[in-house]
Amino acid sequence: MMSTFYPNEERQLIAVDCVILGYHHQELKLLLIKRQMEPGIGMWSLMGGFPRREESLDDAANRVLFQLTGLDGVYMEQLYAYGEVNRDPGERVVSVAYYALINIGDDDQNLTGLHDACWCPLSQLPELVFDHRIMVDKALARLRRKARIQPIGFELLPEKFSLPQLQGLYEAIYQKELDKRNFRKKILSMDLLDKLEEKDKTSSKKGAFLYRFNQEKYNELLAKGFYFSVDV
Amino acid sequence: MMSTFYPNEERQLIAVDCVILGYHHQELKLLLIKRQMEPGIGMWSLMGGFPRREESLDDAANRVLFQLTGLDGVYMEQLYAYGEVNRDPGERVVSVAYYALINIGDDDQNLTGLHDACWCPLSQLPELVFDHRIMVDKALARLRRKARIQPIGFELLPEKFSLPQLQGLYEAIYQKELDKRNFRKKILSMDLLDKLEEKDKTSSKKGAFLYRFNQEKYNELLAKGFYFSVDV
DNA sequence: CCAAAAGTGTTCAGCTTACACCCATGA
DNA sequence: TCATGGGTGTAAGCTGAACACTTTTGG
Questions:
Q1: Could you tell me the domains of chain A?
Q2: pLDDT tens-digit series, residues B179-192
Q3: In angstroms, rounded to a whole number, what is the distance separating the alpha carbons of residues B31 and B100?
């Protein structure tokens, strides 16, 4: 043992686990892997890892996310630290859970090669290892709380999206049908979206205009005391 | 080293730190101690400790709170896990912060004997060791978010309290004067308070009627889809 | 030409906000 | 008797919620 200021304290295992959420085909999906080590080998699991001694928790979570998806700079936030003694039957492990919001894109077969990973619809989740289901439920609760009051929904969509797409996302998050007119009125009244010339014609013959979230406008409005809000 | 499922991972120090908040004399206060070990000995600090291997994070936080205050069963909630590598200059320590809401009572000299502890008004916080100030700010942000939508303010008051006292508490939390008539109307309209016969005459000659929060009514209303809400 | 999705305004109810005076009592 | 804090009601404005028809265009 090196010299230390805390010579009498036990060192313990710390892990991070990532709840990686995406949106595709009108529903929210969760990125799961088959666990590759004991205990619980072969069970469906969140992607996780152990922070190194010279790595912050945030960095470790980002590394884990990158290892699985190859993605960097995506929206990620710490969720909660899980510290029940027997949550991992192998050894006492404190796990700090994070959640990430990802734009899956048109091909939800991405990212599923390396680790036996798959995007699983939230409505059809299998049993998960340890307390991972609790982490997922907490991530969903957080997403539902925050998506009303902060513009984080856009993280789940491509850069350019139509208003019907955005509405479909909110309907998936809140499992509730929304009124088209009220939704458009509310979103557009915040003046945070730039309307583009292009239309998305993948879901109708008429085509729906594409918009882009304007981060600069949002920052300006925030500074003026503005609060994002969507009624659901 | 015992046999383990995770033979290659480093064990690290895990701590818990408690942001203990109280309300007295029309202001919010924070319970601080003088740190008794290096590094940072003698600096103002949150009360903290190390979870034992057979102790959950929640249990450890409650133990730490009890050691300092002798109180048990008070409102406490996990805040956030702090995992920057150098947050503690002595060694890499991941700290899971909790916050507790306490009814200080009439004697704010309580609890201050054993550990060189004191209730410090939030408006006059000294410099705190490590990242403890960040923890305090996060606790306040959490309190401000939750006090509007959940009846947690009552945790900071005695069991019996007057409406002017309750209003004073909300004014301290949000640093904003509230309209007496609107506040009373809103609070009483939720029908969560039982009006008592007694009056509190400590702050006026006329005296203000005392009320008691009715947890059973709140649970019933919750089950019916009711949401607590105070306008601030 | 028609099916299918995009786009558009108005009305009503309920809630939030602003606001001023009387009451009770101990000193 | 008077200073101090406790207690009460109403009107105006705003926001959320409900609701139906026209437009476009590929097949």
A1: 13-147 (3.90.79.10), 160-223 (1.10.10.10)
A2: 999 999 999 999 99
A3: 10
